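Slide 14.
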Amino acid sequence: MLKREEIRIRDPFIYTDTENCCYYMYGTTALEAGSGNAKNTFSVYRSLDLENFEEPKIVVDGSKVKLWADKDFWAPEVHKYKGKYYLFGSCRTEGKCRGTHIFVCDTPDGEFLPLTEYPITPIDWYCLDGTLWVENDIPYIVFCHEWTQVKNGEICALQLSEDLTHSVGEPFLLFHASDNPEVSEFGRGTGRYVTDGPFLYKENGKLNMIWSSFCSGKYQVLLAQSNSIKDKWEHKECQFDFDGGHAMLFERLDGVRMISLHRPNKINMERAFFNEY
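Slide 15: predicted structure.
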């Protein structure tokens, strides 16, 4: 068994399995020492208490599945949708734009296979951190259009077909990173602003999104609110004062709502952090 503090992980995503009374933790784990670069696998850690985890199990092996990408397998998250489990993960290869690819499996810890030949995000956009949101029975992928391509990072959405195999219509902008006045430049004087890790949830009749960027030199969790995915977004303050981000929400087996993120945002030191939210 591994203790939580022993596992180097970025972007930790928790799937709570109420039927089997356990948790599955996914994240960016195939990390190269001393770097934020990653190899070509996605893994899962199973736990009964969120503190002690079984040895990791590879659920996507880029060396074995036929895939357009071969490196930087980042930020996987798993959603149960219409009876199957879908893994949304970002990856890339030289000469092609980073994108989010969707994989599918019958179980949360089995072998996930590519749902399509190409990434679901626009093939000529640099994209990452795609997440699933279903509104009025319509599935969307919400994702980041990277600052590396557009400088002022964007969070965009794209309607998907019911089976998640293709897009319906064109991607649309939700907001820019700099729309939140607390967000600071990624490098002074560069005009670059980061968007990372969107995660959506409903609360008190509002559509909420937590996402991450840099504020006063720290990697932070931010909050935006809207009435619906296509409505105007209102920006709120940073949610924490420490250096940590790329967050998501889940319910513990006892029903308590939790937030999961990595902290600190320092190479080699990243660990999963859980707190009531």
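Speaker note: The chain has one helix and 21 strands.
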